[in-house]
Predict the structure of Ferredoxin.
Amino acid sequence: MTFVVTENCIKCKYMDCVEVCPVDCFYEGDNMLVINPDECIDCGVCEPECPAEAIKPDSEPDLENWLKLNAEYSAVWPNITIKRDAPADAKTFDGVAGKLEQYFSANPGQGD
Ligand code: SF4
Ligand code: SF4
């Protein structure tokens, strides 16, 4: 089991999660983060830290595609352990539907 970052992170990217992870397994894309499922020790500490409620245990239903996306992009995006400011318009995108189709970017973020 692992935790995964899901759709509501896209364009919210608050980054409260990265500083609490004991094994530094968050990776940064252009407008969202992902968790490396092979490195996550399933401690659950990050889940309540996410203001967008985007982090879920993969034991929840219908997260297979998100698990795949987390695994795929954590292999290519840079590691992130230090919190930076959220995008200025993060609040505007909190809870918006269809973010994966409309806004997902495969580009890497800047990392630490
Ligand atoms: S705290 Fe939540 S919204 Fe912010 S980067 Fe982490 S997973 Fe994404
Ligand atoms: S569950 Fe624990 S190990 Fe996994 S990403 Fe969250 S804080 Fe890191």
User: Anything to note?
Assistant: Residues 3, 20-21, 23, 25, 35, 40-46 surround iron/sulfur cluster (ligand 2) (CB under 6 Å). The mean pLDDT is 97. The first helix runs from residue 64 to 74.
